[in-house]
Amino acid sequence: MTENMDKKNSPVPGTPKTLSTIKTLAKIADDKKAGYIKILDMRSRLIITDYFIIIGVKNNRLSRRIEEDISTYLKKTGKYPINVNGVTEGNWILMDYDEFVIHIFTDEYMEYYDLERLWKDSEIVKWD
After folding, report:
1. What is the CATH number of the domain that holds 27?
2. Does residue 13 form part of some domain?
3. Phi then psi for 63, rounded to 5 degrees?
4. Domain count, the chain
5. In this predicted model, what pLDDT tens digit does every residue of 106-123 receive, in sequence order?
């Protein structure tokens, strides 16, 4: 069994470093006045990532600002994204960092796509 598979089947909710990082990202969004923040544990549901961080904001200007602040913080810690999409429009910014994927939605797009409904059986990670 590979190390990745062991991590996915582990009853422990992620590595302490990953959990610390995603909780810090939630706090960054909260400090910028994001209206909604939720972290979902996806390890038992997906093999492509461990966590979703879902962030809802009032407008695309704020979504781009949060994306910028998160990117800056993660670069300082030596983490770089596999892919980032949606920054130009700012309605749904997706930042893929392998172990976690950050979704930054404007309120309208968050309501339309309703990721939490799709992944309603996922465990919620407390961050505050």
Report:
1. 3.30.460.10
2. no
3. -60, -40
4. 1
5. 999 999 999 888 888 888
Q: Which helix (H) or strand (E) holds 61?
A: helix 60-76
Query: Residue 37: which domain range?
Result: 19-125
- Categorise residue 14: left if φ over 0, alpha if ψ from -120 to 50, beta otherwise: left
Around Cβ 9, how many Cβ atoms within 10 Å? 10
Residue type, 99: E
In the structure, what pLDDT confidence band is assigned to residue 13 with cuts at 50, 70 and 90? very low
pTM: 0.85
- Do residues 36 and 120 make contact, with C-beta atoms less than 8 angstroms apart? no
Angle, helix 16-31 to helix 60-76, in steps of 10 degrees: 140
Helix, strand, coil % in the chain, rounded to nearest 5:
40, 25, 35
pLDDT at 11: 40
Does the pLDDT of residue 4 top 80, yes or no?
no
Residue 93 falls within a domain, yes or no? yes
Q: What is the dihedral of CA 39, 44, 47, 50, to 10 degrees?
A: 30
